[in-house]
Amino acid sequence: MTSRKQLSFDPNARSYPHDTSYLDGGRVWYWVVRAGSIICGLAVLSLVALLVTNYWSLIYSLFTVPGYLMGSVTEPTFYLLVPFPGILMPVYMGTGGMEAVIYYFFLAVILLLAIGIMIKKEGRHFLSIASLAIRRKKAPPADVNNSFIMLFQLFMALLFVNMIIITVHTLLTGNSPSVPESLGESTVIEKRLYMLANASVYEEIVTRILLLGLPLYFVAILTKKKDRTWYKYLLGGNIKIGFGAFFFALFSASLFGIAHLSWGAWKVIPTVISGLAFSYIFLKKGVFPAIVFHFLFDYLGMGGSIIEHSGYSATGYNILFSILLLLWLHAGIRYFTHYTLRSVFFAYNAFMKFFKKSARQLRIKLRTEAVLSLLILLIFWYLFYLNLNENINTSGGRGTIAYLFRMFIGL
Asked: I need a labelling partner for 19 at 20 to 30 A (CA). Which of 25, 202, 327, 360 fits?
């Protein structure tokens, strides 16, 4: 009989158990779960390449964006999110030119500092987990306490959520969602690089530090908590997720979503969900991993744009990127179900503190996660098939991968 010890693992450990006895359900079931684990493992490891590509794009921008900013009227604008109509309250309007260049270098320094801190703190741990996953040909457990693993898993889960919302929106309205003109392909690439880098850093400062960390710090003072160190709350990390943290996370995520109404109403729900994920990373790991997480999303697809801007063909890159998108989407199904069930268990435990997880209940959770993942996979492919058929009928025909790539370039 499988013991609870075999089924559990220490999230902080340098390795994880290889036991698969909880999957006893026949040979076919074993290979279905095994294939899913391999797909998730490959997806997690391939996201390292995306992270490297994003930072390569950032370094490239340091040689091109400053010249554009000096000759343009782009002005750095600072604002606050406020819970009443208008939502965006400007507090400072820049003058452009050298001021914008200095600000952009500040953004780049923060982004480089963020990934540097992550690598120093948890890079070696991530490499040990990745090497173990490669040797055992299975995905790292979803509960491993490592910033890189958590970021990659949540990234794929959010990609899947966005894909479903985009697909449903297209089926209901007959039109694919569009991005704001300022971020569209018609906008010069230097401006897009500048605006997306600004969003990755400044939005995290406004929504996570000012609307989540700062209120929690005031609550800690008012309730006279023992640990009232200001930088713990403003920089995040190792903050217990209780009612107060959940409330302010939901509050900041809601304002974050409403602030994206300029994209269209369809963007609010996925942005609120993304805001909750960013808040979770902020609470568990800190503001720097949250910035890297945001940056991973915002610079998605910029590698191909830079290649084309440099005068080269990006066809090969776009095809590879689109194939990886399919891989990430399929892995995202598993992590979407995992974090959804985890949220349900969290809510259940909040109201039923006497609830104790046994080995049998853990097996039920794992089986439920696997079954839900397979069910969602079937629904996903059905919606995608309907969407693709409509796209083919209205546009004269496009390849599945090319269509998928075009849909996600606007995320």
From this structure: 327
Amino acid in the structure at residue 396: G
- In this prediction the pTM is 0.80
For residue 30, the model assigns a pLDDT of 59
Contact (CB, 8 A) for 372 and 153: no
Do 300 and 322 touch, CB atoms closer than 8 A?
Answer: no
Query: Is the distance from CB of 190 to CB of 68 less than 8 angstroms?
Result: yes
In the predicted structure, residue 84 carries a pLDDT above the cut 70: no
Beta carbons of 67 and 312 less than 8 angstroms apart:
no
Tokens of 49: 């390449």
The CA angle 112-115-119, to the nearest 5 degrees, is 135
Exposed / middle / buried, residue 324 (Cβ in 10 Å: 0-12, 13-18, 19+): middle
Q: What gap in Å lies between CA 100 and CA 70, rounded to an integer?
A: 8
Which residue has 């969290």 as its token pair?
A: 346
pLDDT at 55 over 80: yes
- Report the C-alpha gap between 365 and 29 in whole angstroms: 16
Of residues 12 and 378, more confidently modeled: 378
Q: What is the pLDDT of residue 124?
A: 92
Determine contact, residues 74/316, Cβ cutoff 8 Å.
no
- The stretch 265-294 carries a mean pLDDT of 93
CB contact set of 307 (below 8 Å; sequence gap of 6+): 313, 314, 317
Is 155 in contact with 47 (CB distance < 8 Å)?
yes
Angle between helices 359-395 and 147-173 (to 10 degrees): 40
Q: How confident is the model at residue 242 (pLDDT cuts 50, 70, 90)?
A: confident
3-state secondary structure of 81: strand
> Shortest CA distance to 302 belongs to which of 393, 155, 411, 172?
411
If you search the block for the tokens 């899913």, which residue do you land on? 36
Could you give the percent of the chain with pLDDT greater than 90?
A: 26
3-state class of 283 per DSSP?
A: helix
